[in-house]
Task: inverse folding
């Protein structure tokens, strides 16, 4: 890594406004870290746009959180650099999820134009990923106005997606869209199902076969998958959910969660009851995918850095392996902030956490 870049990165200050992205059989399951675990193998297909193949290729991913989802990049302590994409590829990851706050960089009146300079910055991030063989998921993150008055924001929401879809229509299938991160109150299941169908219709005008990621209400909660209704005639969709259970463990001490300091010291030991809960939840997601013939993507999971490292490693490894065993691709939350697998200040991987995610291979 270049010295000037290291100096720039080292000068960043981690904001206290970190956001989380927000979010079986009763037999014991081992939490030991294997030395080698194969990634899911794509189904044989001649179609590069096949969503099951693309979902398998997403494989093991990481979120580039707290950067482009901030009101302005850098305000939450993270600015993206080329070296980050190099490290992610060298670390054994196969994809990145890029949270983006489009609404902070678009006009509030029709035609709701997105700033050209912001598009250029997103182009740069996408191309950094694709040029290194990483699949990239770009989403619509922290669209707070939608969670205040979704009906009023409907036209703007659709206009933003029309611009994004037109802008990226000629990109390869390795670029995926995600309609909206963690829809929640006042967006009800019926309202969300209608909105996602409208957004998909807009996207399909220019991207008829691009893989689009869609999750349920209640912050993409796994238990809300049953309320998700995807258009049956659109077979280029990937369902997603987020997993932060038990919340008092994964979010202990989180500055943005009221009362979270009272949870400090909560551990995750990998007991029979603890592992059974994870297995039950991920079985539920996998079963939903089989029932609806849809690939499933765990778009976020992670435990905040105020939890003890040993517990974080045990929980992270168990969730990752349990997902992989069910052909659920995943993206860890996140790269280099409060949940980070990479310590940007010390310019090094958090090796135990990296190995929990990607068990094999040398630490770059």
Result:
């Amino acid at each position: 890594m270049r010295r000037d870049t290291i100096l720039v990165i080292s000068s960043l200050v981690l904001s206290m406004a970190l956001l989380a992205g927000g979010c079986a059989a009763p037999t014991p399951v081992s939490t030991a870290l294997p030395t080698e675990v194969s990634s899911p193998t794509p189904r044989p297909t001649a179609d590069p746009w096949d969503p099951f193949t693309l979902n398998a290729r997403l494989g093991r991913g990481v979120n580039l959180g707290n950067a482009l989802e901030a009101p302005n990049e850098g305000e939450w302590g993270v600015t993206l650099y080329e070296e980050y994409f190099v490290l992610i590829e060298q670390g054994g990851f196969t994809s990145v999820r890029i949270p983006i706050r489009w609404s902070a960089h678009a006009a509030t009146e029709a035609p709701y134009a997105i700033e050209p300079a912001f598009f250029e910055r997103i182009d740069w991030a996408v191309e950094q990923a694709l040029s290194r063989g990483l699949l990239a998921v770009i989403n619509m993150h922290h669209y707070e106005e939608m969670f205040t008055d979704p009906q009023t924001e409907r036209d703007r929401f659709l206009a933003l997606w029309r611009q994004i879809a037109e802008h990226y229509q000629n990109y390869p299938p390795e670029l995926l869209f995600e309609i909206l991160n963690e829809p929640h109150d006042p967006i009800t299941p019926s309202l969300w199902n209608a909105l996602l169908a409208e957004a998909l219709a807009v996207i399909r005008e220019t991207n008829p076969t691009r893989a689009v990621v869609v999750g349920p209400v209640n912050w993409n909660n796994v238990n809300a998958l049953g309320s998700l209704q995807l258009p049956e005639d659109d077979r280029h969709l990937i369902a997603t959910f987020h997993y932060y259970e038990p919340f008092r463990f994964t979010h202990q001490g989180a500055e943005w969660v009221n009362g979270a300091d009272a949870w400090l010291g909560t551990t995750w030991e990998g007991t029979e009851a603890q592992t059974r809960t994870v297995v039950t939840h991920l079985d539920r997601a996998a079963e939903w995918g089989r029932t609806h013939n849809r690939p499933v993507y765990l778009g976020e999971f992670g435990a905040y850095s105020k939890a003890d490292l040993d517990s974080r490693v045990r929980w992270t490894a168990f969730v990752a392996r349990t997902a992989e065993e069910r052909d659920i691709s995943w993206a860890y939350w996140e790269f280099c902030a409060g949940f980070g697998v990479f310590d940007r200040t010390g310019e090094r991987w958090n090796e135990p956490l990296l190995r929990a995610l990607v068990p094999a291979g040398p630490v770059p």
About this structure: The first strand starts at residue 60 and ends at 63. The chain has one domain: 3-357.
